[in-house]
Every structure is written in structure tokens, then in C-alpha cells.
């Protein structure tokens, strides 16, 4: 959950999000090194009189041609690795189908015979004490922790986007098309997200709440809901 005046990411709750945060820090350090070098050279040019040998040196031209290529490789390799990790889906323990509507979500647990529900945002007048305004829903998505989860995302009317920042998940919901993503929660907890595609007047009022629980709690919850 994000805090007021927070500059960084939310605490990572999945291996993919941990990798994304590490890559973000890595890219910032590269950018900081580039900016420092450019500022140093600008200051040197303003304060020092460079000789013609330095300006015309082929060695300098060789360096400022090869160095950017090395920097790009340092950014491209970890980026491609994370992209392939996000796209790879092994054998999931649970498949969840999320269907976007104006303006609520429908969830179907396809591994169970009859387990589906609609998830609406709780209005402020019905919000329990201590819960988050505009983020709490009447029915949460409950999943087992430390288990591979596949999410199939689609929409019934207009474009939506199923996004949970702390899990590193953001997948567009497109009418007539099935997109899929996957994640693994590394700890129990409640993770909040929202529709991240402008989908109409009440776009801001279709939150997503994912509750990660131990496996035995999930089995108890699913048996109660499907009975």
C-alpha cells in the first residue's frame, strides 16, 4: 500500500516486482553516472582551455562511440531478462479469470465448478473503520500464497486494465480477447490496485483487492464460497 509523499515503489510482494525494482535502481545509477560525466565535461570546457590535440583526438572519438553502446547493453540485457520472465507462464496452481465491466470486476475461478463473483467498490457510507476509501471492495480476490497464479484478463464492454502495483502486474482487458499474466505472492497480505485504463465516467471507482493467504485458509474460503 502506498503512503502519502512516497517517492519510491510499493513494497514488492512478488519475485517479478522485486526484479523490476532492482532494474529501476540499476537504471537510475546508470543515468546518474551519465549525468555526472556530462556535467563534469561541461564544467571542464567552461573552466579549462582544451587543446586542439584533445578536441581532434581519435581516441576520444572512439571512447564516446563505444561507451554509449556498452551503457545500452548494460540496460538492455537485464531488461530483456525481466520481459521474458514476465511473459513466461509455467504450470499454474490456480487460474483466475478477471472480466472488466463498467465499472466493476467479475472473477471466475476456473479450477472450481461454481466459484465466481462480482467485485464492486464499497461506497464511503458503508466503509468499515480502518479500511481505505476508494480502494476497498465487497468481495476480494483470495489466492494461496507462494503458488503460481495465472490470471486471464478480458473485458465485456470497453477497454480496462487489471493492475496491482505491488505484484508487478498490469494487463489490458480487451473485449473479445483473452490476455494472460502470472505472479507468485511471496508473503500473506492484502494488495490494492485499480483499473489503469480510462474506461468511462467511473473509471476511478473500480478498484482491485488481492488477498494472499496460506493454502489451508484458501481451501476453507473456497469451500465456503462454492457450497
UniProtKB/TrEMBL annotation:
Cofactor note as given: Binds a copper A center.
Catalyzed reaction equations: 4 Fe(II)-[cytochrome c] + O2 + 8 H(+)(in) = 4 Fe(III)-[cytochrome c] + 2 H2O + 4 H(+)(out)
Membrane topology: Multi-pass membrane protein
Alphabetically ordered keywords of this record: Copper, Electron transport, Magnesium, Membrane, Metal-binding, Mitochondrion, Mitochondrion inner membrane, Respiratory chain, Translocase, Transmembrane, Transmembrane helix, Transport
GO molecular function annotation: copper ion binding; cytochrome-c oxidase activity; oxidoreductase activity
Residues covered by the Cytochrome oxidase subunit II transmembrane region profile domain: 1-90
Domain Cytochrome oxidase subunit II copper A binding positions: 91-224
Family membership noted in the UniProt record: Belongs to the cytochrome c oxidase subunit 2 family.
Function summary: Component of the cytochrome c oxidase, the last enzyme in the mitochondrial electron transport chain which drives oxidative phosphorylation. The respiratory chain contains 3 multisubunit complexes succinate dehydrogenase (complex II, CII), ubiquinol-cytochrome c oxidoreductase (cytochrome b-c1 complex, complex III, CIII) and cytochrome c oxidase (complex IV, CIV), that cooperate to transfer electrons derived from NADH and succinate to molecular oxygen, creating an electrochemical gradient over the inner membrane that drives transmembrane transport and the ATP synthase.
Record-given protein name: Cytochrome c oxidase subunit 2
